[in-house]
Amino acid sequence: MNFSRTLIAWFSKHKRDMPWRNTKNPYYIWLSEIILQQTQITQGQPYYEAFVSKYPTVFDLANAQESEVLKLWQGLGYYSRARNLHASAKYVANQYHGIFPNTYKDLLKLKGVGDYTASAIASICFNAPTAVVDGNVYRVLSRYFGIDTPINSTKGIKEFKTLATSLIDHENPSDHNQAIMEFGAIQCKPKNPYCHTCPLNESCVALQKNIVDQLPVKLKKTKISTKYFNFIVTLSTDNKTIFQKRTQKGIWQNLYQFPLLESDKKLKIADFKKQPFIRSYFKDTSFEFSLYNDKDIVHKLSHQHLHTKFWIVEIDQLPKKGIPITDLKRYPTSILISNFIDEFFDD
Hints:
Helix 1 crosses helix 11 (173-186). This protein is of the alpha+beta class. It is built from 15 helices and 9 strands. The relative contact order is 0.11. The longest helix has 16 residues, at 80-95. The protein is elongated and about 75 Å long.
């Protein structure tokens, strides 16, 4: 059985109709690949369509303000992708005069573009025989060939890339790459794969050995840390609040948020006003405060869980320059802050 030919034949019958599959424009393919990193297609497609509508060319994206890009990205998470997207658009517009680099090597020079994304763009847009390896590909290859090397180990990354490269159809690398990814997404699924209708089932090692549910193998993740966030929502009598740009590096860099107090444990109401940060922030100003949520809002990220409280501070005059409360939704924020704004200010 020819592995690649079988997958491409399956793909021609079962592929889903996606807007980025109706183009070879590298700008659109790049947009879709960046948006769909660590994002399900059902969630990512509306964002893709919004970006294409607002920024139909790489020049449009390059000329946008970063805050506008982050606002449009809001809700997708992993905001470094949006910042890299904007930086790369500027790079392509200025260094390549708006023409995307057409080789795997040059595509890797774009911020936020790694082996997988460069391989996808090079093969889909320029017919280069560069094999893609993502979560779906790892799953298909590990099961079909019965490979138990951890996919997130140095050895595994190299082994699967070498195998994927050896299997690629040099005459039709675009369909081959899209086929194996689509096959992993809807046929060889993580749970309850459709083995009984699989065109590869007669030669699948994992199926023959009854170890489909044991592959692929992945090393245990780093322990998830816990942090305690206390956002201070200051409300003045003239309907203004303090909303600040988060400038320090991290996932929420350049997004806006209410002043933040991090604590080493959950704060009770009696402890809040005693915090040195609170005393120095408001100094001798008279204010009233209350706790919006008695139960922590737990915001789960890949590497940490944020136990969050929102403290409402009512004050006559803000200790720092503020913005009208009616302007809050104009600013790019994390989904955590956005949800709070929707719940608290729209009630």
